[in-house]
Amino acid sequence: MVQGFGSYLNKYEYPNIGTVNNNTGFGAAAVAPVPLLKNVGQNNQLQAPQSDITEFSQQTMPMGDEGMFGSLQYTLPLWFVLGKGVDLYNKYCTGEYNKSLPAKLARFGDRVSNSKLLNNSYVEKVENTVSRSKQNILNRLKNNSTVIRNLIENSTKPEWEFARSAMFTQEQELANEFNTLFERYLKGGGKKPALRHLIPSKEEKAFIKSILGNSASEMDKINCLQLRRINPLKYNNEQAIKAVLSQRAANPEIIKDILLKELGCDAATYAKYKANPAKYVKEIRELALKAGKDMKVYHGNYSVIGPVFRRQANMSQIGNKLLSIAKDATDAAGNAVPPKTALGRGVSKTVQGLMRGVTFGGGKLGLLIFVAPALVDMYKNAKEAPEDQKAGTVAYGLAEALSWVATFPASMRLMHKVGGLRYLGMTANQTEQYRQALEKFKASNKAGEFATKAEFNKAWEKVKAIKTPTTKLNWFEKGLKGLGTLITQDLEMKPSWKNPKLKGIKSLGNTFRGKKIGNFFRHGAGAAGKLALFFGIMGYVLTPLITKPLEWIFGKHYDRYEEAEKKAKAAEEQQAALPPQQQGTSQEVISAIDNFNANIEAANNKPATSVIPPREPKVFVKSQGNIVQDNSRYIPSQECGIPKDSDEFRTYIPVQSNQIVQVQDNVNGLTEIDRRADNAVKQAYTLLSRRI
């Protein structure tokens, strides 16, 4: 077969080149040709082949199934396993304290603390020396620096509920969870009360059915179960339970009152605990221990997907956790209840904090969104990391997934410590007096006690006078005081005057002022300033305090995204270092390229043509004086009137230029075609080698 232009270039790894030219078979049959110079850009510059770009992107950018949830094939199974672990942990925190997991952890810490390794005179001497040195340093700093003393003693307080809860200690977090759980239990588990949310046993379901029958309302069933659980000896028959249910219409809070009374509390006292759980941790702990494991409910009833995300919680979990980290707990006889050492309390608190971090505050939804993808990302980084970076990658990934439980509240506290510079020059008692006076002033204004704006301003001046610094400040300290005020300008703001004379439609003026619409920009600026400070502290102060020691111990961590960016940047720098490509290609060359591509495109839309196969040599005889050589092949022109299948002898050779091909040999008679193909290849290579 003739080796045409296309097949010749195919030998030199140009498989997409090879087509027809002006409907004349110049090469092999056309095979879906592609424009010869497909990588010529808008500026007529030869670009890198697309295949190379694709290969580079696949090597440097680990895209694949990356996303918000990471790779689901890893994330979902991991989340399922972690969720089962959370359920198991909660199960072992339930029931009698001495048999619960928090108690066992605390006792383990006590044993270690009382062991010969730690309980000896040398360790005790070191601890006392460290404690004294720490106190001496703090005292010197407080006495010698007004700024340091203020940072230690004064701090602003968050007014946003989320910010307040984020700063909770573990004790405060558990006390707050008691209120949430108790309210859910009273309501039957959620917005739409359902008996199943209180997790009744088969025996409890049978009891409810025997007392109320099948036609009772859902709320009647819930209240019946609540009464029996709080006092099974008293509320164990139909008469006692229905007597309470009959009073519910007149007193909707009767079930709540009975439950609190059985726990040794009342509605007014509980309201006080609920308003400030962080202040009444000890009292809330006692209520939780009395309620025990029977006061249980599902956390997270997310409608249809509730069974997937919810977790079981009960009061004994909260009580046992609180007792295991308490310093002041005693039994009925007044004896100290374990843990008796700081290490015992620390071990239990560490595990609780770890679980709080794993569940992002306790929920399986947070576990799915935040923790599981982070751990999967850690696994992928460790898988791609060099051998000397695998340990560091795992350590860093674990810290990144769980350390928020420490860095988030700590960053919040430090942010408010810096904001506390607004009280620079004031004592801690003075700051507290100002806050109390401010709250009283706001309450009086809200009640409409200031008849005129003048009275309002006069009362405000008295409150503001309390903020007068007792210590003289220099220019630097005044600057810090102004900075603290600027950052926290949306906290402890002066309220707008409420005019008690405005009635009806005119009272809208008070409504707008009461909602601080006029202070919108102050709120925005204060929030932006605190957020910037918060992320700065967390990212540049606290996070390095965790990651740097891990790097010293386990080595550097590997981040596949950072590595991909480095490779991409290196490739860009290498490309930029190349000499500039030639510009201004001649118009003749550009026209030739355009014509070539146009022919290729036209050929794609027509049936492929091939070289006319050579006929077998024919022997013709002399006719009317014309001799036809037996090694010649005749190709009549289209105007020839003699049919191709006619028996007549052809007595002439029709005039048709460039249509006679002398075939000297079926094998070696292609020299001229090969020579022309070689010239065409050379011209193509010359064209391609130019920087167009």
Can you tell me about this structure?
There is one protein chain. By secondary structure, the chain is an all-alpha fold. It has 28 helices and 2 strands. A two-stranded antiparallel ribbon has the order 1-2. The protein is extended, with a radius of gyration of 44 Å. The model is unreliable at 1-65, 608-612, 615-633, 648-653 and 655-669 (pLDDT under 50).
Measured on Cα atoms, how large is the radius of gyration?
A: 44 Å
- The percentage helix is 55-70%
* Quaternary structure classification: single chain
List the uncertain runs: 1-65, 608-612, 615-633, 648-653, 655-669
N-C termini distance: 35 Å
Order of helices and strands: HHHHHHHHHHHHHHEHEHHHHHHHHHHHHH
Total of helices:
28
As a percent range, the share of strand residues is under 5%
Produce a short descriptive summary.
With 692 residues, the chain is an all-alpha fold. It has helices spanning 5-11, 50-60, 72-92, 101-114, 121-144, 146-153, 161-166, 170-186, 202-212, 218-230, 238-245, 254-262, 267-275, 281-291, 306-309, 315-324, 342-358, 364-384, 390-402, 404-419, 428-446, 453-465, 475-487, 508-514, 520-554, 560-576, 587-604, 671-689; strands spanning 296-299, 311-314.
